[in-house]
Amino acid sequence: MSATPAPTRPPTRRPLGWVAWLVVVVLALAAGAWGWTQWQARNVREREQQLDAGQRLDALEGRIDAIRRDQRSQLQRLQQADATNRVLRDEVLGIGQRSSLIEDTVSKLADPDRHGEQALRLDEAELLLDMAQQRLLIAGDLEGARRAYVLAGNVLDGIDDPAYLSLRQTLQQERAGVDALGVEPRVRAMAELDAFAATISAAPIASHSTVPVDAPWWRRAFATLIDVQPSDRTVAVQPADRIAAASGLQLEISLARAAAERRDDAGFRMALQRAEGWMTRLWPPSPMLDKQRATLRAIAARDLSLSLPTLGSTLQQLRQLRAAG
């Protein structure tokens, strides 16, 4: 008998292929994770770079704004310096002009033919006379004008030139006219108004309930119930009416005082005329009312401006003499 061969065992498959595939998969996952990590890191770096670039841009814009502000401030300083230079240049030119004027004045004063001391005295006298005239016409200051005339007279007394002898006589006449004025008209009118306003409270109160003793019995009986008075009666009786009338009178006196202050003759007289109308509301027809009216009309007739024909004659003559000389 031939021997039968022993049966062969089938070859066993080793799991090498699956291991290889597993390794490949693991490597692929690791590569993907590494790539994702790198991509995320790159995104973070790009965002940081963008943020850093934005901050740098903001800082750059801030520096540009600061440079612009510095430029504007420098421009303003340059403009101020330019204005200051112009002012200084004008002042230097003014100083030069004043120096030339001083030199001319000194040369004129040094000229013996021009009588420098006399010219100075005439300038001072002209200034004092002009000041006196302005004090009278504008401020109504009689005392100040008198002092200015006295000083002008003292200055003219120091001039020995006989050509100015008539000027001193004219000044004496003008000073006499100013001394004769007494009180400035505007001040006198305002003082009289104040004195008149103080007498308003002395207005008598008209009684509307007085009944004669010898009146009929029916009139005496009904006197407290019926008030009979003329229809043309204008005197205020009620306290409220008298207060209103007194207030109206005081207001017109205040308006007259304001008009006198500004030398408004028309406004002064119109205010006093209206005040006379209010007086008929306070005073009944009586000698006292006539006296008050006469006082008010006398005040209204006052002249608020100075009336001096010789005012300014000395100054005019002095200027004519200097122009002729």
Automatic annotation (TrEMBL):
Q: Which Pfam families match?
A: HemX (PF04375)
Keyword annotations? Membrane, Methyltransferase, Transferase, Transmembrane, Transmembrane helix
Q: Which GO terms describe its biological process?
A: methylation
InterPro entries for this protein = HemX (IPR007470)
Residue intervals passing through the bilayer: 18-37
The broad enzyme category this protein falls into is transferase
Asked if the record carries the keyword Transmembrane helix, the reply is: yes
What would you give as a GO molecular function for this chain, any one? Answer: uroporphyrin-III C-methyltransferase activity
The EC designation for this entry is 2.1.1.107
Q: What is this protein called?
A: Uroporphyrinogen-III C-methyltransferase
Give the organism the record lists: Lysobacter arvi
